[in-house]
Amino acid sequence: MNSMPAEPLDQSPPIDLPPVEAPSAGFIVQLFVIPAVIVVVVIVVWLLFGKLAGGERDAMSYVETIKSPSANWRAAFELTSLIQNDPKLSRDPKLLGELAALLDHDLNLKTDETLLQYLTLTLGMFQTLEAQSGVGDKVDVIAVLCRALEDTRPASVQIAAGMSLAKQAARLEGTLEDPRPIKALAATRSSDSPEVRKVAAYALGFFGGPEATAALKAVMEDGDRDVRYNAALALGRRDEIVALGNFRELLSDKSLELLYKETPEDERKSKVENLELEALNSLSAAAAKGHYALLTALRPEVEALTRSGLVTVRSRAQEVLKSLPESR
Predict the structure, then answer these.
(1) What is the spatial distance between Cα 37 and Cα 294, in angstroms, rounded to a whole number?
(2) Cα-flanking dihedrals φ and ψ of residue 131, to 5°?
(3) How far is C-alpha 208 from the geometric centre of its chain's CA atoms?
(4) Of 21, 25, 107, 203, which residue is the least packed, with the fewest Cβ within 10 Å?
(5) 307: buried, middle or exposed (CB in 10 Å: 19+, 13-18, 0-12)?
(6) What does the H/E/C string look like for the chain?
(7) What is the pLDDT of residues 190-216, one digit of tens each?
(8) 72 with 112: CB under 8 angstroms?
(9) What is the rounded CA–CA span in Å between residue 170 and residue 232?
(10) CATH, range 149-238
(11) pLDDT of 57-106, one tens digit each?
């Protein structure tokens, strides 16, 4: 058996290797320092979010911070975010009681306006109105929010109180018929701030009962169009024919385009679309309860929107018309 001849060994001289040099400072920074910094940043972010998700103990530490003489709005803002993202905290009666009592106390003092604003907003993040103090006494959250709505408060605090009442009433789906917040919201009709009146009208829409309906009807006399629109949308869900005139504006491309003629085109289209959709949704909500008076009166306007250049509006208008009984 013949074997293959072995290949001759390479006798050529070895290729010179590059000289070995010490690594430069830039190379060390790229290789070690920058990754280390990234790792540190990741750890810090992880620890921060861990603290925000840390539960009741961290929440109460925020309360203590807000109580301190050096308190600022950032602690209240962070606590608001914490409660909003933690179902357990949002149902904690002791935490709610502590915050409501703290707001009630601070409303009597010359407390930082922004701190009061965020503290007031925090009360709307809870999924309960059951509140108790640290010693077990019941705390009336609604009464505190009504105090925050008084005309002696800064507008930002009044707006925050209106939003918190709206959230609590919306959560209870119209079953919160407490006359106190309805009266407090209705009293803002005399406010010089259109924003306060607008939020109050919005909040009233989530309260049930004849008192809330009467308050909304009174708002229809407001000189600010946006305030009236908020009241009209709420009355539309109740199928109140008094809102007919405002709905004709809300369902008219021409009226809304004229209203926002000074607004940049993209923003104007967005506003028109949102208002028309809100109006259609309001009529749909009434129809879902078997009430069609307002929708029947507005049938021509809704039919016109089935030819809208806005796809979302056109589609929604078609759906709303289908909710009308054939006899109408």
Answers:
(1) 63
(2) -140, 145
(3) 21
(4) 21
(5) exposed
(6) CCCCCCCCCCCCCCCCCCCCCCCCHHHHHHHHHHHHHHHHHHHHHHHHHHHHCCCHHHHHHHHHHHHCCCCCHHHHHHHHHHHHCCCCHHHCHHHHHHHHHHHHHHCCCCCCHHHHHHHHHHHCCCCCCCCECCCCCECCHHHHHHHHCCCCCCHHHHHHHHHHHHHHHHHCCCCCCCHHHHHHHHHHHHCCCHHHHHHHHHHHCCCCCHHHHHHHHHHCCCCCHHHHHHHHHHHHHCCCHHHHHHHHHHCCHHHHHHHCCCCCHHHHHHHHHHHHHHHHHHHHHHHHCCCCHHHHHCHHHHHHHCCCCCHHHHHHHHHHHHCCCCCC
(7) 999 999 999 999 999 999 999 999 999
(8) yes
(9) 17
(10) 1.25.10.10
(11) 488 888 888 888 877 788 888 999 899 999 999 999 999 999 999 999 99
- Distance, in Å, from the CA atom of 320 to the CA atom of 267, rounded to the nearest integer, reads 25
- The residue extents of the domains of the chain are 36-126, 149-238, 239-328
pTM above 0.85, yes or no: no
Q: Are 276 and 251 in contact (CB under 8 A)?
A: yes
Q: What is the token pair recorded at 3?
A: 């074997």
Sign of dihedral through CA atoms 192, 196, 197, 200? negative
Buried b (16+ CB within 10 A) or exposed e, 268-299: bbeebbebbbbbbebbbebbeeebbebbbebe
Instruction: Report the C-alpha gap between 133 and 137 in whole angstroms.
Output: 5
Give the CA-trace dihedral at 204, 208, 213, 219, to 10 degrees: 0
With beta carbons less than 8 A apart as the criterion, state whether 189 and 197 touch: yes
Q: Are the C-beta atoms of 162 and 196 separated by less than 8 Å?
A: yes
Rounded Cα distance, 194 and 231, in Å: 13
C-alpha pair distances (Å), 182 with each of 67, 134, 158, 188, 229: 30, 29, 14, 10, 18
